[in-house]
Design a protein that fits this description.
single chain; mainly beta; two-stranded antiparallel ribbon; 1 helix; 12 strands; globular
């Protein structure tokens, strides 16, 4: 689907810092990731301790979305609306998002049809979600959530420096609750300045 405008490896090796400040604790500093333009799954960058969901079923919590098993997804509890907050360990660029149906779509009425995305908004609740303009609004069909469907491309310019994404499942296809089988966010880490190189160039 096309997001509608809102209403509107080489893994870096750890290396020791050559000059530690006196009195500072010795620690290994990781070289920043190279921005090679390739998209990767950002699952390893998610700070699970800072993530949460509102109105989630205790039997089907948000964390199931990262397992990769669509029968162990996430469901809402009291009604069809659901808020899922995903926090990253560092700033990332988000290119697209892959959402999959719950349990192979056996109950299509539970499939979300409208999901709003909010970037860098913390502690959004149902009582104030309408106070913020969504960064993107996705209108979804059942086909969009199939396992073999392409990831949903986002308006990349609006997702260049993302520390968190909040998904608000606003509507489904008529079910009492909403359900998702999986969630994958694709992009890459924001390139950071190599401070050691910076210092050497300015010495």
């Amino acid at each position: 689907p096309q997001p509608r405008p809102p209403t509107a490896n080489n893994s870096p090796k750890s290396r020791m810092m050559s000059n530690m400040m006196e009195g500072g604790a010795g620690a290994a500093a990781e070289a920043p990731p190279a921005d090679d333009g390739k998209l990767v799954s950002l699952g390893e960058k998610i700070d699970k301790a800072q993530c949460y969901a509102r109105n989630e079923s205790s039997r089907f919590p948000w964390s199931n979305l990262l397992i990769g098993d669509g029968t162990l997804g996430c469901k809402s509890d009291a009604d069809e609306q659901l808020i899922i907050h995903i926090q990253f360990q560092e700033f990332v660029k988000v290119h697209s998002i892959k959402l999959t149906e719950f349990n192979s779509g056996r109950d299509p009425s539970e499939t979300p049809t409208v999901i709003k995305l909010y970037v860098n908004r913390v502690n959004i609740g149902f009582e104030d979600v309408d106070d913020y303009e969504p960064t993107a609004e996705l209108e979804l069909s059942a086909d969009d959530l199939k396992e073999d469907a392409d990831p949903i491309k986002l308006q990349y310019v609006k997702f260049q420096r993302v520390k968190s994404i909040t998904l608000f499942v606003e509507e489904n296809d008529g079910g009492d609750v909403s359900a998702l089988g999986g969630l994958e966010i694709l992009g890459r880490p924001v390139a950071t300045t190599n401070m050691n190189d910076f210092k050497s160039k300015n010495c």
